[in-house]
Amino acid sequence: MLGLQLQGIDIRFPGLAAPALAIESLTLAAGSRVALIGASGSGKSTLISILTGLERVGQGRILWDDVDICALSEGRRDRWRGANIGLVLQDFHLFPGLSALENVLLPASLSGAMARDIGARARDLLLRVGLTRPTQMIETMSRGEMQRVAIARALLRRPGVVIADEPTASLDSEAGAAVGELLLELSRESGCTLLVATHDLSLAQRLDRRIRLAGGRIVDDGPVLEQAA
Amino acid sequence: MIGFILADLRRLWAGSLVVVLLVALATALGVAVTLQERALRLGSARAADKFDLVIGAPGSETQLILSSIFLQPSPLPLMDGTVLPRLLADPRVASAAPVGFGDSFGGYPVVGTSTGLVHQLEVLAEGRVFAALGEAVAGSAVDLPIGYAVKPTHGLAERGGHAHTELAYRIVGRLEPTGTAWDRAILVPMQAVWALHGMEAESDADGRHDHADDLEHDHGHSHDEAASGAKAGHAPIDADAALNEDWGKVPPGLPAILVKPKSIADAYKLRQEYRDTETLAVFPGEVLTNLYATLGDAKRVLVAVTTGAQVLVAAAILLVTILHVGQRRRQIGALRAFGAPRRAVFVIVWSELFALIAAGVLIGFSLGFGAAKFIAGYLSGESGVAMPVVFAAGDGLLMSLILAFAAILAVLPAVLAYRQSPAAALRA
User: Residue B344 and residue A93: Cβ atoms within 8 Å?
Assistant: First the structure.
């Protein structure tokens, strides 16, 4: 599990007066479970992009434990992300033409990170998310099943952090609830840090801490009170 | 990674197929032109190989070769018949054979010659060589059985030639294939051709003058089909008359004599000696070389056209792949987001494109080879000249060059994919 220390982030896009993201300081404890909420355009996606190293920042520091990912070269950041971050995205980003198992294994095999027992782990994870046919082709699956494959893929290399960007937004409420439940259970089992950007209030309620963004700034940050609303 | 590339190509099979077909057709075009041109050159050179030196009456060198080597039906001026005994007596000559053209049967040229030339061409596949006036030897590509009666037509039937009724040749033998135009020929005794055209050899010197007139007459007759009826009333010729190949008697006029000199030096001396006002001696190879030099310009035009087509195809492929990478931005961004190194992205895009182009090039080479084979087969059937469709060492180099070019071409979209920001690609 990894903890985050973020300092002095200020991201602006040309032609826009307001910053896309301006965060003086943010700390996530290792193993914490955090919901990131806010309206569309509030900066959630930008924050996730810089936390995962998908986007560079001009200034500031992003420390995951003691690794400053801003200081890494692009190639090293890719490698670091593959090894340390499990990513679950709204649109799944699975690859048609491959089976569920092949999809789970694809990032690891492309990065040359195929450990000996990784195939067995992929099968276990697929079973754990409730998929009994690892050889089923991805395009024949329902959207709920696809997101489960994506969760199995995110957890394959035992990442220290799982970051999910609207994991339930493109699912119906039933499938969304099941996927949210799996995400919580599996991250608890593995003990990793969990950050979920979501509009889904019922999912946000079940996390420990809630950060609200508006206009690229943190406007609210505090523990989720059990059934407070 | 290979599984992913294959799945990707399967998913995009329609576009992939189009790219492969485009490359294959462009390659096939170039390969077919190159191979066919080479086949034509090699084929005609080999066809002329069996004939060292050709002597005819003064006139067009090219026409002499086209008529005597490639048996193209067109009249040649006649030279004095005494040239033949003179050549036969020459110590520098290994063999000399008269050839007489002008008749045909069912599209096959009927060529008068000597038994010597028959043996010089090839061994007999079956039967025997002609021994009487009314006997004939068929070339390997002549589709007539042994024993078949050939009634020759003067000129070509489709051009209004008239039938010779005085003599029917009986096919008594068949040659092995020679790969030359002579495979389609029906070889008959030279004496029979003379007899058919009213040009018997005469032994007395006095007869020679009259004979020259007759030659002139006959010469005009072969040119002027309107006069074709004039000679129709010949008395029948005794088909069983034994063949007398004593050329010492002054023979009538001849369109061409095929000469085999004893040595190369002899060949040059003979060629020198028989180029005067009465005769024209040529090396077939030399004439063909001149012909190719003229055709070379035509080949350059063809090559330029095919090169243009290939450049267009290369441009089309480049456009397709750049669009393709644009469409795949999300997929490529996702690969990066999930930790695939940029190197892997580069290799995926590059190898997909290179695999398509390489497949196209390989298919194109076989298609081009097949097309050239087909065209050569068709041309061989028409002319009898075997056209060897073969790859040369330079073709391997050409293929490596094309593949190297494809490898470089494929780098461009791969670099484009490589340089994309994954975050921007995912948002797209």
Answer: no
- Helix (H) or strand (E) run with residue B196 in it: helix B190-196
pLDDT category, B157, cuts 50, 70, 90?
low
| A118 in B contact zone (CB under 8 Å) | no
Burial of A21 (0-12, 13-18, 19+ CB in 10 A): buried
DSSP 8-state assignment for residue A71: G
pLDDT in tens, B342-400: 888 888 889 988 999 899 999 999 999 999 999 988 888 777 778 888 888 888 888 89
Interface residue B343 vs chain A (CB under 8 A):
yes
Nearest to B125 by CA among B72, B183, B68: B183
The distance of B350 to chain A (nearest Cα, Å) reads 15
- Which residue has 């079973």 as its token pair? A127
The pair of structure tokens assigned to B247 is: 């050329």
Do the chains contact at A93 and B8, CB–CB below 8 Å? no
Q: Coil, strand, or helix at residue B276? A: coil
Give pLDDT, residue A185.
Answer: 93
A72 touches B at CB < 8 Å:
no
Give the C-alpha separation, A76 to A66, whole Å: 15
User: Which residues, 6 or more positions from B310, have their beta carbon under 8 angstroms from its beta carbon?
Assistant: B26, B27, B29, B30
Report the gap between the CA of B11 and the closest CA in chain A (Å).
Answer: 6
Structure tokens at A211: 């950060």
Task: Grade residue A154 by pLDDT with cuts at 50, 70 and 90.
Answer: very high
Query: Would you call A110 and B335 a contact, using CB atoms and an 8 Å cutoff?
Result: yes
**Minimum distance, in Å, between the CA of residue A161 and any CA atom of chain B:** 13
Q: What is the ipTM of this complex?
A: 0.85
Q: What letter represents residue A79's amino acid? A: R
Mean pLDDT over each residue of chain B, to the nearest integer: 80
Q: Which of B11, B343, B421 sits opposite A97 (nearest CB)?
A: B11
Pairing of strands A4-11, A21-28: antiparallel
Q: In chain B, whose CA is at the least distance from the CA of A52?
A: B337
Distance CA A42, CA A178 (A): 27
- State the number of CA atoms in the 13 A half-sphere of A47 facing the CB: 34
Q: How far apart are CA A14 and CA B276, in angstroms?
A: 92
Contact: A45, B344; criterion CB under 8 Å: no
For domain A4-220, give its CATH number from 3.40.50.2020, 3.40.50.2300, 3.40.50.300, 3.20.20.140.
3.40.50.300
Summarize the confidence of residues B264-272 as an average pLDDT. 90
For the entire predicted model, the pTM comes to: 0.71
Position B228 confidence tier, pLDDT thresholds 50, 70, 90: very low
Pairing outcome for strands A193-197 and B135-138 = unpaired
Tell me which residue has tokens 């030639």: B161
Across the interface, whether the CB atoms of A78 and B340 are under 8 A apart is answered: yes
- Residue ranges covered by each domain of chain B: 2-45+291-427, 53-282
